[in-house]
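Subject: sequence -> structure tokens, single chain

Hey, anyone have a minute? Need the predicted structure for the following. Not urgent.
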Amino acid sequence: MDAAMKHTEKTLFQAINQIGQTLDQKLSHQENLTQGLLTVINQQSQTMVNNLTTMQNHFNHMFSNHSWSINELMWNEIRMLASKNDVPRSKIDSGEHPQAVTFRSCKENPSQLSGKYIIQSTEADEPFLGYCEQTAFAGGWLVFQHRYDGSVGFYRNWTEYRDGFGSIDGEFWLGLEQLHRLTSARVYELLVELKDFSGNYMYARYDEFAIGSEAQQYQLTKLGSYSGTAGDSLIYHKDAKFSTRDRDNDDNQGGNCASRCSGAWWYKNCADSNLNGAAGVYDEPFLGYCEPSSFGGGTRVIQYRYD
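Reply:
Had a minute. Here:
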């Protein structure tokens, strides 16, 4: 009897053990299947992410090219409208692209971002590319002279000062003819920003500014009330005609102030201010009777329409 029970117990134990081993094998197999499925799912997910990234990059590239093409087409239309005399002033060099379409002035530009914009003061005027300073002194300023590193020479002739020179992205002079068209159409303020070799900042602001036509030798016809920290040295030049190295319109009987001062300006006899002259060391800010300018750190002359 005992032997029979022991045999039965042994048989049951073996059966239970076999069932346990079978369950372990099936569980292990199920875990392997699950792990395999998770691996496949992860691989598929990564593939989908990669595909989506590729598609996004592709669409971004297409959008960028499309936007670029629109800008190119827009500027081609502008260049077709511009006269030959205006092309040097409104030319967009490689990498230069306007941020907006046409505005009558920087003041009417709603953007708070400083940068290149296409300006058309009146319907009768040709559009041109200008730099709008939208942060300094509440913004709305059009930059027409900018110097800061000496990369562009300012000892130039009458034609170059009339038509403009340099690059909007660097040092430049917008052009006397453009300046005359703007200031004869509306009332403008004038702001001169200065920085010396030590980085000290000064400014001179005038509540009215205008120049005459080329027939008037771009005479400084209007200069309003002064405010600022640089000193009112520009008042000396009011009513003066513009002079360059090849066109002497100054009051000096001893020679051409533009040649002596190495830069074009509204000279009389000769200058209390000389922002287009050669840079050098000088101990009186914003002054200089043909002395080198002390503002090697940079000058920026900008105007603001306020009518």
